[in-house]
């Protein structure tokens, strides 16, 4: 009867999503749809996998674009995505009509006010740390609500909201909340427990200086309650500086003791035992320490944590193995910011010390395509044997940035023999030459290399 009552209550609510195709937005739309809400939405462009997932649930807009006639008094709430503009006609109609408008961070907070909120923040590692925590909690049988930015094995939708869960675990993004709210997303969650995994300048389009970027994390720290816990990566100097500004309890962590033999990683425990892992790389050993610290605060025993983390396979597109055959392997990775690129390439070197490591990076984001930012990549490919940097001139044009020149990119990266190209056929030629019988290649991008598909490199 309680279930029927909840469903009946939900069916009375109609929610419209402006920019429904976003990674977090479409997952939230799917979650509300499954709860019984009447969901509608609009967007001017919807890419995969959002398109297929919305279509499967009957939520894909019939036409792309913005249609203010969709907004009327029957809608109870509007959820606004960052992709929209502040002059969006549907947004203006909603404000005119008096319909409550929420950004998705504001909406998630409204649904989790009564819960213990855990926010995983940082310039890198936050998706993986969040994924680790959810993996362990699932194995432990601890019910939790969540929001995470990548598809995880065993989870159909990456947003969950319930009546009974004690916890809400959320990946915390420092980017702007919405076109009408320039504050960082994560401050809207008001966490009792927060993680800062590291700080490296990113999102130059909205944070033109490192100091302006750093200030977003200051806002998070200053908003922590005195009774809260801030889990911090103590090997990062910028994070350490922020610790002194925090009033709550500091829980520092570092890279978990570990060893690597033949490319296989295992954790070293204080009792002398070892925990074999399916993931690799020093950065993931730090991510494990962060997840362990949070799980302890949530009441998970160390023994249960280690048993569970041994089976963790990683998050989608985070050092994801897509093909291998004998002594050749192909990986893809979401890495695009300098610190992420450096960590991913180093991880492959650690796993394959005897192989040729070939790194292919696409410059796709506003920051990576900016002349004033590109020097931040110096040394990020140092652990690779061969490297290629690709960019699509069309992406530069769309972002209305000055033209990039190959020589400027080569100088910025400081990598001897770096191949720079802007034509997909040059990627194919490069791969054919350097992806030899004993090598590992990684494709790093938040985009798709202008349609280049590395999945079939190994037959």
What does this structure look like?
It is a single chain. The chain is α/β, with parallel strands linked by helices and 459 residues long. It has 14 helices and 22 strands. The chain has helices spanning 2-11, 23-35, 50-56, 89-97, 104-111, 126-140, 210-222, 237-243, 282-297, 302-309, 338-351, 393-398, 406-413, 424-434; strands spanning 14-18, 38-42, 77-80, 101-103, 116-121, 144-147, 159-160, 167-171, 176-178, 181-184, 193-196, 229-233, 249-253, 258-261, 264-268, 274-276, 320-325, 328-333, 356-363, 386-391, 419-421, 439-444. The strands form 5 sheets. The chain has a 7-stranded mixed β-sheet with strand order 7-6-8-5-11-12-13, sandwiched between helices. Helix 7 (210-222) links the parallel strand 11 and strand 12. It is globular, with a radius of gyration of 22 Å.
Helix content: 25-40%
What is the C-alpha radius of gyration, as a whole number of Å? 22 Å
In the CATH hierarchy, the third-tier topology of the largest domain is known as UDP-N-acetylmuramoyl-L-alanine:D-glutamate ligase
The order of strands across the largest sheet is 7-6-8-5-11-12-13
* Uncertain stretches: 1-11
Please describe the topology of this protein:
Layout: H1 2-11, E1 14-18, H2 23-35, E2 38-42, H3 50-56, E3 77-80, H4 89-97, E4 101-103, H5 104-111, E5 116-121, H6 126-140, E6 144-147, E7 159-160, E8 167-171, E9 176-178, E10 181-184, E11 193-196, H7 210-222, E12 229-233, H8 237-243, E13 249-253, E14 258-261, E15 264-268, E16 274-276, H9 282-297, H10 302-309, E17 320-325, E18 328-333, H11 338-351, E19 356-363, E20 386-391, H12 393-398, H13 406-413, E21 419-421, H14 424-434, E22 439-444
Parallel strand pairs: 1-2, 1-3, 3-4, 5-8, 5-11, 6-8, 11-12, 12-13, 18-22, 19-20, 19-22, 20-21
Antiparallel strand pairs: 6-7, 9-10, 14-15, 15-16, 17-18
Helix pairs in contact: 6-9, 6-10
